Amino acid sequence: MEGTAHQAVAISGMRRTRYRGLRQTRLAHVLTAAAVNLIRLEAWWNETPVARTRTSRLAALALAA
Q1: CA angle in degrees (0–180, nearest 5) for 25-23-18
Q2: Which residues 6+ apart lie within 8 Å of 24 measured at CB?
Q3: How many CB atoms lie within 10 A of CB 46?
Q4: pLDDT tens digits, residue range 38-59?
Q5: pLDDT of residue 51
Q6: With contact defined as beta carbons under 8 Å apart, do 3 and 51 qualify?
Q7: Using a CB cutoff of 8 Å and minimum separation of 24, what contacts does 22-26 make?
Q8: Quick check: 8 and 38 in contact, CB under 8 A?
């Protein structure tokens, strides 16, 4: 969830809205969510990672052995 929220904020600056009305703000959020979904879908089709993921300690131990 945190990654999705960060991606939405990075794409559109979702923390601040440029509209005063609730309807326009909701529409902006819906369009931002659709954009995030399309970006993630395109990354999945091309098999490119959306973001770097950390290596867990257990996986690091397995790699070291």
Answers
A1: 30
A2: 17
A3: 7
A4: 888 888 899 887 667 778 888 8
A5: 66
A6: yes
A7: none
A8: no
